């Protein structure tokens, strides 16, 4: 795994500023917002300058009960190849539920939702990750997400869950320290404990982002400055391992470029502070090792000097020796790869036990230990696990977006917070993909959309949602203003047919003339 350095999330709204920012080693682009055949000029120029671009997927739903969609995997692979990326990233989350697997209506969350940390969910996630790894041309890294609520009956901590996922699949991890802070506030989970349980050698890179607290709930908004507690978690991580890359995420409410540059500087300082602590810990550990060595003289000095040891009993550190805490170390060819077993095809990790003659199907390490402790058999049917997980996720998502009863065991207040957050997210994204709706409806847009969202779950993408919203208003004789209603109907007709309306000049002129006449 190559070292990435310091980066920032590339967004169209700040594309020009990102190009001019000093010290940007790499950028991350939302995969679904990039067309492989028509890359934005800004991304193309960055690539020509040698800036690495990593596609970051948000819609695959690897934590869902269904197997990953082949079309979505193909699209992600195409973006990785078009951008010349060293890896692609996605989330440990589910984004849709229902359908044929559960014989329930297909529902879309429109946002990332947490998976339960259970054996069933882990088995399904591991198989889904392996399917994705096989379909992608470059290594995959998966990200821990922020959560507003907890699943009842969870069997593992976040660190244990991520450790076993990496142990069983060889997948790399994208650790979001802002999400660790979010789960500290919302779920009382200790970030330090999670970091202590992680397989640090599997870290591909780190996300840093801002948020805000309201009524005791932390919202991972990506629209606010990075707070000190998140930087402290980053320093803690950097005191344990040297992260190959660190990236600032900002999705909305973009500040002036100088403010973004200041945040990047704060991130660099946090990483440097962690590196200092890591070196101090390594020096202390080395000193204790020398003191404990047989034959050591009082004060920790050895009677005889080792070959290669510095005068005075200290260790002579080679400049080319990798630090103990590095997440990646140099291998043949000059590339940087984690200290894990040799990689097989498509970045899969060869099992050292298999290579040594250990029978396949026998688990050791985190996977075997956790299974043994729980008393569960080593192998259970993943299809049955998919069925159980699918039913649980469908029931929860229905409560979140369709107003059905909250499943037993969940915190109803927190589920309500999540439901309102999902509706608000829908309103924001629909306003972005169909800005004409806000122009037509004016200040009534948000209230009208939230009312619609309470009764109409999203079953397709956001563009389909925008059209369904317009249909909903028109069927109810809204908006009340006749001119606005005619304009909304015309907008809907332009986009809802089986094929786009003709763009020939004569036809466009006819439609424009008709609009003018209708408004008189």
Automatic annotation (TrEMBL):
Name of protein: DUF692 family protein
Signal peptide annotation? none
Q: Where is the composition biased (Low complexity)?
A: 286-301, 364-375
According to the record, the residues making up region (Disordered) are 285-380
Q: Where is the SCO6045-like C-terminal domain?
A: 392-474
């Amino acid at each position: 795994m190559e070292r990435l350095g310091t980066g920032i999330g590339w967004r169209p709204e700040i594309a020009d500023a990102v190009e001019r920012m000093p010290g940007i080693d790499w950028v991350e682009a939302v995969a679904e917002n990039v067309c492989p055949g028509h890359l934005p000029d800004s991304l193309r120029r960055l690539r020509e300058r040698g800036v690495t671009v990593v596609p970051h997927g948000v819609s695959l739903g690897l934590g869902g009960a269904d197997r990953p969609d082949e079309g979505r995997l193909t699209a992600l692979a195409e973006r990785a190849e078009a951008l010349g990326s060293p890896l692609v990233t996605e989330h440990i989350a589910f984004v849709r539920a229902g359908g044929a697997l559960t014989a329930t209506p297909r529902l879309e969350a429109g946002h990332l939702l947490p998976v339960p940390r259970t054996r069933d969910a882990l088995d399904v996630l591991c198989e889904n990750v392996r399917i994705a790894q096989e379909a992608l041309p470059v290594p995959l890294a998966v990200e821990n997400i922020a959560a507003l609520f907890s699943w009842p009956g969870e069997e593992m901590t976040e660190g244990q869950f991520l450790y076993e996922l990496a142990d069983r699949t060889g997948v790399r991890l994208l650790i979001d320290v802002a999400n660790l802070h979010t789960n500290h506030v919302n779920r009382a989970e200790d970030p330090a404990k999670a970091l202590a349980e992680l397989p640090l050698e599997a870290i591909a890179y780190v996300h840093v982002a801002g948020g805000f607290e309201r009524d005791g709930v932390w919202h991972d908004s990506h629209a606010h400055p990075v707070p000190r507690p998140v930087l402290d978690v980053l320093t803690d991580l950097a005191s344990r391992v040297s992260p190959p890359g660190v990236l600032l995420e900002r999705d909305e409410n973009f500040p002036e470029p100088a403010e973004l540059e200041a945040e990047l500087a704060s991130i660099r300082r946090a990483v440097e502070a962690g590196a200092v602590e890591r070196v101090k810990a390594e020096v202390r550990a080395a000193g204790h090792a020398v003191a404990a060595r047989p034959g050591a003289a009082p004060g920790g000095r050895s009677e005889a000097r080792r070959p290669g040891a510095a005068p005075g009993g200290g260790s002579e550190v080679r400049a080319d020796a990798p630090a103990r805490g590095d997440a990646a170390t140099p291998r043949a060819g000059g590339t940087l790869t984690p200290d894990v077993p040799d990689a097989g095809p498509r970045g899969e990790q060869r099992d050292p036990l298999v290579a040594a003659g250990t029978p396949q199907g026998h688990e050791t390490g985190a996977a075997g230990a956790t299974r043994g402790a729980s008393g569960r058999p080593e192998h259970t049917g993943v299809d049955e696990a998919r069925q159980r997980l699918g039913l649980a996720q469908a029931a929860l998502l229905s409560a979140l977006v369709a107003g059905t009863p909250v499943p037993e065991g969940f915190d109803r207040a927190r589920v309500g917070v999540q439901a309102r957050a999902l509706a608000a997210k829908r309103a924001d994204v629909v306003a972005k993909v169909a800005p004409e709706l806000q122009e037509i409806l004016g200040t009534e847009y948000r209230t009208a959309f939230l009312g619609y969202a309470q009764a109409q779950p999203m079953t397709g993408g956001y563009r389909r949602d925008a059209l369904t919203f317009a249909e909903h208003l028109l069927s109810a004789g809204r908006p009340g203003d006749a001119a606005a209603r005619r304009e909304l109907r015309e907008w809907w007709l332009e986009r809802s047919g089986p094929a786009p309306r003709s763009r020939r000049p004569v036809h466009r002129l006819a439609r424009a003339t008709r609009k003018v006449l209708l408004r008189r």
